[in-house]
């Protein structure tokens, strides 16, 4: 069975464009507030959603997402709320994967978390601090519950690890565009196209590129070489200004992914 | 004068090494972003080669001897021991090392590795500032650029060490996220590392983190236990009944424990910060009160809430104020080879003052936790007891904290 995530990205590709994947933490600014924002992102053109789990020690995140995660935790976010958010956003037509640091999942129980996520309509997990060689229990649980395993590769990933990581992945492969934490940047990393090209030699899975994209222009640039454009911090920043701002950004980015810049 | 026991042997493999992926039983491993895995692999390869390379081992031992001042003394503390049920207590004097704590052992080893890897920039986290000072010192010695992340709370309670680091040429960056203590300093250092890993070595200061750090840091500190074992045999004619050490991330404890780990009759006892008391919820007693989880790259015990969110630790001691602990300690706890208990702020401060007044030695507040623990162990063991305590550092850095605790400020 093809994964819904893969099929969604492939469908965009068939239209001659990249898919748009938008990130927001669950529970930011509040649980109902995050549901409204995410629904707005779907309406305004996000093909897929990446719903973050706020965590106390987000070592891969820059200040913008750290602050949002803290705000969500201070507002009383509980881990189980992520299932509520996934469920409601999915019911409204969103296609959602969860992005989470590993300890909350481990603590909840990897199989139990996978079961509850699948039951809520979630499609998979992006795991920024879990590499496939440490992921035996997640490999098993994702199979059992039909979830996609979205691992990351980075500019520093060796060929050997490219092979290992692509082989363990499903849904799509997440390529980090730069060496660094999340945060909107003025320029997309020069390494990004190179990472994608190296990964393609190992897999036919679609490849999403994230870390740093914040404008329609950058989305068009990334769409020139990637199958999905992932936008996080820029959405989080606009979320502070409310649903209208988030929709506006989503619309700009959705327009960007529809005019891929072909450079080569 | 005891014989110099640092030797090429100390870096050799033994049955206490983790498996090839860094697991101590179910603990350890590498729960880190993919972006860092290549660097961890490189570090592992370079370290595995170096530990068996006589040139590396000689250079390391030379620095320990001629720069750090090893071997450190083993000093009997008879007047202090009068308060410990009459047991004999010996202090392993890591406070006498250059820079004032055990931290220099690991730092010299990793700084040498940094040079071998051709990296020019070093980053480090620090809680009490002792690891930061040791790192700044080694970087000055070896001509490396040095950046130290330190929680803002700790920059205040360890202001003297901030000044020392800056004098040594390091940049000190106060960390204002989260609890503004050691945990958050490690988060910031990891974020820096992800962005600069090509040029930068993360010189982690304790026996925690992803593989190979717990094993490597332990091995650089094994010299503490090896010296202590030879010294106690010479001075007391027998092995101790117990070895006591404080446990923050666990580096001084794992270093001294390993000298005795194959001596089944020697109890290995780690003392964690009980803060305002376990019941108050304000403590850093990770092994006694925590549950398994991942933090900063390894699976180990962790202070966490129902949702797996890290709980902020508390201790009067900046160097013990950490909600995680090295994975080998988790394994030693589960296997029963070591025991872990907690000591409150008040007990530690009483021992801090007692050692100062009975022996003329001002310990670090971290080390005072081991001393307070030894007082209890002595009562339990009785007059025939023999205890070696790891005096992991000196207390100069703690004068502000002590002055306000005891009300010495006029
Ligand atoms: C003197 C001293 N002892 C102990 C510690 C705790 O660290 P560890 O548990 O790694 O020995 C520190 C940390 O800063 C320290 O400065």
Q: Features of this protein?
A:
heterodimer, A: 264 residues, alpha/beta, TIM Barrel, 12 helices, B: 410 residues, 6-stranded mixed β-sheet, 15 helices, disordered N terminus, binds pyridoxal-5'-phosphate
Brief rundown of the structure:
Chain A is an alpha/beta fold and 264 residues long. Helices cover 47% and strands 14% of the residues of chain A. Chain B has helices at residues 34-50, 54-66, 78-81, 103-116, 130-142, 152-157, 159-167, 182-196, 213-236, 251-258, 286-289, 327-335, 345-359, 365-381, 399-406, and strands spanning 23-24, 27-28, 74-76, 88-93, 121-126, 145-151, 171-175, 200-202, 242-246, 267-275, 291-295, 298-302, 338-344, 386-391.
Describe this structure in words.
- The complex is a heterodimer of chains A (264) and B (410).
- With 264 residues, chain A is α/β, with parallel strands linked by helices.
- Chain A has a single domain (4-255), classed as TIM Barrel (Alpha-Beta Barrel), CATH 3.20.20.
- Chain A is built from 12 helices and 9 strands.
- The radius of gyration of chain A is 16 Å and the shape is globular.
- The termini of chain A are far apart.
- The model of chain A has no long low-confidence stretch (mean pLDDT 95).
- Chain B is an alpha/beta fold.
- Chain B contains 15 helices and 14 strands.
- Chain B has a 6-stranded mixed sheet, with helices on both faces. Chain B has a 4-stranded parallel sheet with strand order 7-6-5-8, sandwiched between helices. A two-stranded antiparallel ribbon of chain B has the order 1-2.
- In chain B, helix 10 links the parallel strand 9 (242-246) and strand 10.
- The relative contact order of chain B is 0.16.
- Residues 1-9 of chain B have low confidence and may be disordered.
- Classes of the chains: A alpha/beta (264), B alpha/beta (410).
- Chains A and B meet through helix 5 and strand 6 of A and helix 1, helix 8 and strand 11 of B.
- Bound molecules: pyridoxal-5'-phosphate.
- The site of pyridoxal-5'-phosphate has 21 residues of chain B, from helix 5, helix 10 and helix 14.
- Chain A: Its EC number is 4.2.1.20.
- Chain A: The active site is at 50 (proton acceptor), 61 (proton acceptor).
- Chain A: This is Tryptophan synthase alpha chain.
- Chain A: The alpha subunit is responsible for the aldol cleavage of indoleglycerol phosphate to indole and glyceraldehyde 3-phosphate.
- Chain A: Tetramer of two alpha and two beta chains.
